[in-house]
Recover the amino acids of this structure.
């Protein structure tokens, strides 16, 4: 790592040569303006009067700007790169941070295991502020933590972009007065479950899924996008879930009749889609959205970890419903055969290899498969979830797409014979 101080049009900043990349912190033109914009965007979703954790020292301008906006809020800065941390403490940038009364600076490698865990459990994800430059110099030894932070950053960014829709849907959905899931806790305990997603590999699993459904010994939960492909093969799921707050996802339920199938929806899901279902409905309160957390507390309901996608949210839901043996189907997390989704889904489109830059280990560990940034983050979420729930029996039966570490990879036929 090579660290130098460089001049810009306004104030000096820091340039890093790290892992073959040249990184200029904040901006090579106007670091103060970048720091100001970053802070304004970050505090828009903050839970007020709560502590804040910031990932990344950078050149410190974002911290100074944050203190100007929140002079009485305790702010903890976490730096993961030891080499940079030690350099920073002896640099001219340090004193401007050390003199701030409500700011403490910590080196991640020196924290106890309890303190490390506390970073992710003591505050809401909305109050965990992640500066991109902090991730740019992340040491490889903390790759798993970086994956978690990437996912939080993605979710927070997605939430920020959709905040108006989310609030509007939330206010309409709570007027429906639908029940939550507290009374359903462990309702499926001891029963094998299958989580159906709408990846390209779903198509080849539909015949066996139909057989499994006819025997009715497995609990089948599905994402909303996969509902129509299942129904076209006479497969009626036990329940399905939708979390998308945006217009357009109502296509998932248009001309769909499931009068006896439970629909689980996130409190911020697109309201029109929610009202299309004529069968039983249950509302889910998601962690990380302040209004939902307040309602969950008021109603003594659990919250759902969304993970950024409907499948990740559905997995957390299944565990709360008692799932201990869970198989993924159609969870490609990659563009298998150049497709985004299974046939007969409203979201299916062809993906050109030139449109994607990332490749990951394929399901069969025989080569690589193309994926997208969001899909890759979801894959890492699944991997982390499995690692954090070692008592669960988790199987990837997609038989296509990306390999998911920490999951057992077996065929759907094998899973079916194992638990029938």
């Amino acid at each position: 790592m090579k660290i130098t101080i460089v001049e810009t049009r306004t104030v000096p900043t820091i340039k890093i040569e790290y892992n073959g990349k040249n990184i200029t912190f904040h901006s090579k033109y106007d670091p103060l303006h970048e720091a100001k914009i970053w802070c304004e965007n970050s505090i828009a979703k903050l839970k007020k009067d709560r502590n804040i954790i910031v990932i990344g020292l950078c050149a410190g301008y974002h911290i100074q700007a944050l203190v100007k906006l929140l002079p009485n809020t305790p702010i903890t800065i976490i730096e993961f790169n030891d080499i940079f941390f030690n350099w920073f403490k002896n640099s001219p940038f340090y004193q401007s941070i050390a003199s701030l009364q409500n700011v403490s600076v910590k080196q991640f490698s020196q924290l106890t295991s309890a303190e490390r865990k506390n970073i992710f459990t003591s505050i809401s994800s909305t109050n965990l502020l992640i500066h991109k430059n902090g991730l740019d110099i992340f040491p490889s030894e903390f790759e798993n933590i970086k994956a978690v932070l990437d996912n939080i950053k993605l979710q927070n960014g997605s939430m920020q972009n959709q905040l108006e829709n989310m609030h509007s849907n939330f206010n309409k959905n709570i007027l429906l007065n639908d029940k939550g899931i507290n009374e359903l806790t462990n309702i499926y305990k001891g029963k094998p479950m299958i989580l159906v997603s709408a990846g390209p590999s779903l198509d080849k699993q539909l015949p066996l899924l139909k057989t499994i459904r006819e025997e009715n010994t497995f609990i089948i939960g599905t994402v909303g996008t996969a509902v129509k492909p299942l129904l076209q093969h006479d497969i009626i799921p036990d329940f399905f879930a939708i979390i998308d707050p945006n217009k357009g996802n109502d296509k998932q339920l248009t001309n769909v009749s499931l009068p006896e199938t439970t629909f689980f929806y996130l409190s911020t899901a697109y309201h029109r889609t929610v009202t299309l279902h004529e069968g039983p409905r249950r509302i889910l309160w998601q962690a990380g959205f302040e209004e939902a957390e307040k309602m969950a507390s008021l109603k003594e309901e659990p919250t759902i970890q969304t993970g950024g996608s409907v499948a990740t949210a559905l997995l957390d839901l299944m565990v709360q419903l008692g799932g201990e043996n869970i198989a993924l189907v159609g969870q490609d997390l990659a563009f298998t055969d150049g497709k985004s989704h299974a046939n007969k889904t409203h979201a299916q489109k062809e993906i050109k290899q030139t449109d994607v830059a990332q490749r990951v280990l394929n399901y069969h560990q025989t080569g690589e498969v193309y994926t997208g940034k969001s899909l890759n983050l979801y894959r890492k979420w699944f991997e982390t979830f499995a690692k954090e729930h070692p008592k669960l029996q988790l199987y990837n039966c997609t038989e296509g797409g990306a390999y998911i570490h920490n999951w057992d990879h077996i065929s759907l036929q094998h899973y079916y014979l194992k638990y029938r």
